[in-house]
Amino acid sequence: MHIIGLRLTxxxxxxxxxxxxxxxxxxxxxxxxxxxxxVNFEHFLEDAIPWHWHRDVEIIEVTxxxxxxxxxxxxxxxxxxxxxxxxxxxxxxxxxxxxxxxxSFESCLFQPxxxxxxxGNILDTRYVxxxxxxxxxxxxxxxxxxxxxKPVRGLLQTARTLSQDKEFAYEFDVRTQLTETWKLLxxxxxxxxxxxxxxxxxxxxxxxxxxxxxxxxxxKKIGLAEIAGAAAISERECFRCFQKTLRVTPIHYLxxxxxxxxxxxxLETDDTVLSISQxxxxxxxxxxxxxxxxxxxxxxxxxxxxNRAEE
Length: 311
Fold this sequence. Notes:
Layout: H1 12-17, E1 34-40, E2 49-52, E3 57-64, E4 67-71, E5 75-78, E6 83-86, E7 92-96, E8 104-110, H2 113-116, H3 122-133, E9 139-142, H4 149-165, H5 170-195, H6 202-217, H7 224-230, H8 235-245, H9 250-268, H10 273-279, H11 285-296, H12 300-309
Antiparallel strand pairs: 1-8, 2-7, 3-6, 3-8, 4-5, 4-7, 6-9
């Protein structure tokens, strides 16, 4: 999974589920390729789960407030009880529909081969791969008016309960629930699959390459030229891609990411502010303080004192 997010220390279980490039099957405490978690935005230092992508498919259900799910192509606003399917490798972000509003959701992530049984068989070629390979099927909402929303919600809730109880051979029962869920997904997706539209994915591919570069090299001295080079494009095209897809500039994204990593170190270590600022790529401690204040609305020292006091 490729995600940039920052949670308060009491939300460490979600943090473990969202490690960069990880997937449920890679979790050290489980070899079952399916995971459930709950996200409450009151436990986040920001009002969003920022842009990310992962190899698993995901289905989320809004449990409080009103949620917005965005991909690089479309955006959906969902109320309590509504759901959204997020396809594998889809660049997306999740946030409250209104900034600062109370909002939470439950999520199920799983590997598609859990329901297909493996690559190349009839279940895969007829029902799984067509959905995964449809680049226009990045997000698929299930609204309150949709007659399939309630059955999907029930199947996922049963799967979650089975996964939590972990009775003998529960994996078979969870797989059954997810297989039934996938069957309803196939029915819901058929009209969009039938359109066979061709979508230009160059922007998203370039953005993913540049985000990966930033997340691997943010501790170093990098700028617009290096970020653009990661996708083999010009600096002008780099700027255009970020603005069009993420609605921020490349440098603002880099600064924001560095601040998140610094905030995490402020919570998890006793390193000095100067040491932390240098470790995340800032060469000027005063400049680091100004940028930190810009994004988190307090100084690094105030941030550490305030959040450690809440533990």
